[in-house]
Design a protein that fits this description.
Keywords: DNA-binding. 9% of the residues lie in helices and 54% in strands. The protein is mainly beta.
Length: 133
């Protein structure tokens, strides 16, 4: 296993999760960890638990942006390794991987949105730091 940290570099208007999936396929990795990133994003869809119910029921919040990525972490694994309680939330995923990201994004007025990053695109560009586990 390679312990090197790699950088996934995005250009303008790229799908965040789609590029992670392509990277995983190219490297032939099964699992990876995203330790951080820097860049600008737009058209995001966040998820967060609606209440204290388990398994969680989530609400989705849209953020059009553009905004600056404040933080991002995540894990990537084969879709068949997904936790049972998350299968209902991510049932519409078409990827071979479960790309589980948590992020926060700052907007021009100083507001910050965050939660589970369900979907999103780059605004000007983005770098994600990823390592095989």
């Amino acid at each position: 296993m390679d312990k090197k940290i790699y950088v996934i570099k995005y250009e303008e208007n790229e799908d965040i999760k789609e590029k992670i999936e392509k990277f995983m396929q190219e490297k032939q990795w099964d699992e990876a960890y995203i330790s951080g990133g820097i860049g600008s994003v737009k058209n995001l869809l966040f998820t967060a638990p609606k209440d204290n119910t388990l398994p969680p029921v989530v609400e989705k919040t849209s953020m059009e942006g553009p905004g600056e990525l404040v933080s991002i972490v995540g894990e990537i694994m084969p879709i068949d390794k997904i936790d049972e309680s998350l299968k209902a939330i991510y049932k519409d995923e078409e990827s071979d991987f479960f790309i589980h990201l948590h992020a926060s994004v700052g907007l021009k007025d100083g507001k910050v949105y965050g939660g589970g990053l369900h979907k999103g695109r780059t605004f000007r560009g983005l770098k994600l730091y990823i390592q095989e586990i």
